[in-house]
Amino acid sequence: MIKVVVVDDEYIVRSGIALLLAGETDIEVVADLDGGPEVVDLVRLRRPDVVIADVRMPRMDGVELTRRIIGDVHRTGNVPKVLVLTTFHVDDAVYAALRAGATGFVLKDAAPNELVAAVRAVASGEGWLDPAVARQLIDEFASHPPSELPGPDEVQGLTPREREVLVLMAHGLSNAEIADHLVVGEGTTKTHVGRIFAKLGLRDRAQAVAVAYKSGLLRPDDPIPARRR
């Protein structure tokens, strides 16, 4: 069972998300709140797998909330994933939340099945970027890859298959899509992704996108490699 905490200052949005998720047999909404410092205490107490938080809230925005939750993780050992809700595609708040440790983003106007899929994805250890957000992030990272991330030398330490998987991640493919593309099992793909993250010291897929471009493994105009047959 995936335990979820929903945080949004708008009651209608918060209750709607909670009601939607409560209808799924593998998801349990353990709490919903309107924000504030008490969210961190509740997360520590209830130990959810996923925290869904609006990126813009008056008492404490999603960026600061993510920072505090992730910071508290290092003290308590609990590892919730933060899935941020935003009405914007990409802006400074999106990048700030990624840097703070958010695992994924969903637009507030996303289809209900996309939100459910996002919760399941981040709970299983995958990142989730709404397609509209992912495209803009890829373009931004291609133009301005963060300087503190691994470069070409570190990427050369990956195996050929791991570099192949990294390129497909940078194109925005999920683990299931990568597995289908390479004609391998999804479990095998997850193993490759885990090793890439461990070898390069990456936290999430957004960082993987940046590394792929920074290292020269991928250029903005490169098409998705042909599917294996």
Structure description:
The chain has helices spanning 11-22, 38-46, 62-76, 92-100, 112-123, 131-143, 152-155, 160-170, 175-182, 186-200, 205-214; strands at residues 2-7, 27-33, 50-54, 81-86, 104-107, 128-129. Helix 3 (62-76) packs parallel to helix 4 (92-100), helix 6 packs parallel to helix 11 and helix 8 (160-170) crosses helix 11 (205-214). Helix content is 52%, strand content 13%. A six-stranded parallel beta sheet has the order 2-1-3-4-5-6, sandwiched between helices. With 229 residues, the protein is an alpha/beta fold. Helix 3 links the parallel strand 3 and strand 4 (81-86). The mean pLDDT is 84.
- Quickly name the level 1 CATH class of the largest domain: Alpha Beta
Write the element-wise H/E pattern from the N-terminal end onward: EHEHEHEHEHEHHHHHH
The overall average pLDDT, rounded, is 84
Q: Into which percentage range does the β-strand content fall?
A: 5-15%
CATH homologous superfamily descriptor of the largest domain? Response regulator
Radius of gyration over C-alpha positions, nearest whole angstrom: 17 Å
| CATH topology title of the largest domain | Rossmann fold
Distance between the termini: 36 Å
Keyphrases for this structure?
single chain; 229 residues; alpha/beta; Rossmann fold; Arc Repressor Mutant, subunit A; 2 domains; 6-stranded parallel sheet; 11 helices
Topology of helices and strands:
Blueprint: E1 2-7, H1 11-22, E2 27-33, H2 38-46, E3 50-54, H3 62-76, E4 81-86, H4 92-100, E5 104-107, H5 112-123, E6 128-129, H6 131-143, H7 152-155, H8 160-170, H9 175-182, H10 186-200, H11 205-214
Parallel strand pairs: 1-2, 1-3, 3-4, 4-5, 5-6
Helix pairs in contact: 2-3, 3-4, 6-11, 8-10, 8-11, 9-10
